[in-house]
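tool_call: predict_structure(chain=1)
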Amino acid sequence: MSYTVLARKYRSQTFDDVIGQDAIAQTLKNAIKTGRVAHAYLFTGTRGVGKTTMARILAKALNCLAADGPTTEPCCKCDSCIAVNAGEDIDVIEIDGATNNSVDQVRELRQNAIYRPARARFKIYIIDEVHMLSTGAFNALLKILEEPPDHVKFIFATTEPNKVIATIQSRCQRFDFGNIGPAAIAGQLKSVLDQEKIKYDEDLIPPLARMANGSMRDALSLLDRLISTGAEPLDASLLERYLGCPNSEKIWNLIERIGGSDAAGTLQAIEDLIGTGVSEVQIVDSLIDYMRDLMVVKSTGTDSELLILTGPQRKRAGELAEKFDIAALIYNIATLEKLRWSVKNSDTSRALLEASLLRFALSEHFLNVDELLSQWKGGSPVSVKKKLTTGPMPEPAAPAPGGGGKPQGDELPLMAQEPRRVGASGDIDSIKNNWPDILGLIKSKLGPGTSGLLSSAMPSRFENGVLTLEFGPAGQMYKRICESNGRIKQIEALLAEQFATQLRLKFEATTHEPPKAETQVTAPATPSQKRNDLVNDPAVKMVLMGLDATITGIEENQ
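tool_result:
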């Protein structure tokens, strides 16, 4: 006896057996119970979601010979039910719209429809892929579809309802079949494996259910391929070897490297995946799915029913979710979706993928505008679970020769001025008095970004080689940025050279604003300098990164 594939062997036989289409099944059952069965139905939805199966079940329910009339529970044992299941019933005619789409074939259907059924109650026409009919064929159907004989029922099925002309749709009751959820598919796969008495590992089911993309038929076809390998027990490694699915452990490893701001590890993780034959598009698709799981974990916890994961996978997702926050995950998912199309059509897809993932790993944490404004105005700081770095800052250059004396006069620009050296004893008053000059030196050596961050702080103590800087409520965001990107080490090295002693920096948050340092009177900034300062302002940089935006113009309010 020839082998029957799982998609046919485990095809639903009654309304109650249908997976994932409960609302439609219940509506049709109620129509049968109340005697309100329409003369024409239009079933729409993607492939493998149960359109033709539901049409056959409805046909069996209307024509079951074991009942005195239409029934919601066909016996599936009488001659009519068995013939419908096999697609051979003389009163239930299944037509492929793709190959029977001409006007002449539809006219023949109309001529045959006037004859009563041979043994059943109704003559039922099931036309699959009805959108493939020509315009002339559709028009030939209109009259009989509007006023069919009492003994005729039409059931149309299509994956593209937009191609079915409006005059046909208006004569039918339309039911839209939704994609079947991964949880329902996973449950059916387990049931099939148990009935087939095939051993399997739990970690096989979730990725296999996701690969089906909402189609039960696709899920069973994929399972058939795995069973054909002869391996037992079935496990997740088969998905990689035979179905081209990326290895889940390697995807988790890639996400872990991104979350840890590990640039080299991120590139190596990409290499490990591509080395197994996985395409760049598959990597992007997998990252979207896995980061979506992390987003759900961050939002609802690891016990959420929205997660189709095993116990160990939930634990792993919970651990990795701690490396991210909601803002970063939302940004990553949205960016990956845009990246998918670019990678698919690019001649340098690998470089594009690597550059994008490195951007995730080496970019500052993405804040939304509300959070940024809250911090800017001195609101409560946002708990940041992941701060991504932007790479090492340039090493501070050696101090300019000519000493540490403070230049006389105001004609020299501030960034060229250097502070007086402070002795090893550590005089905090001297540091406070020289703080504007110290900021000027930091600006000249480490850039305006770093000096701008420290301008919100004031020295408060210098004890045992530890210089404490206080940030007020409005400077909490600057404090966190100063603590990242290796800035502390660079500032410590520069100040140690100026103070002629080793020192360490300590940042503290205060509830009051520290007194502002008196700055020297300088010449009015030129428009170019003003633009420079604005572009390098840390708050502006954060907004630009968070919104993935660029500056197009600057207007000055008088």
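agent: DSSP finds 25 helices and eight strands in the chain. Proceeding to next step.
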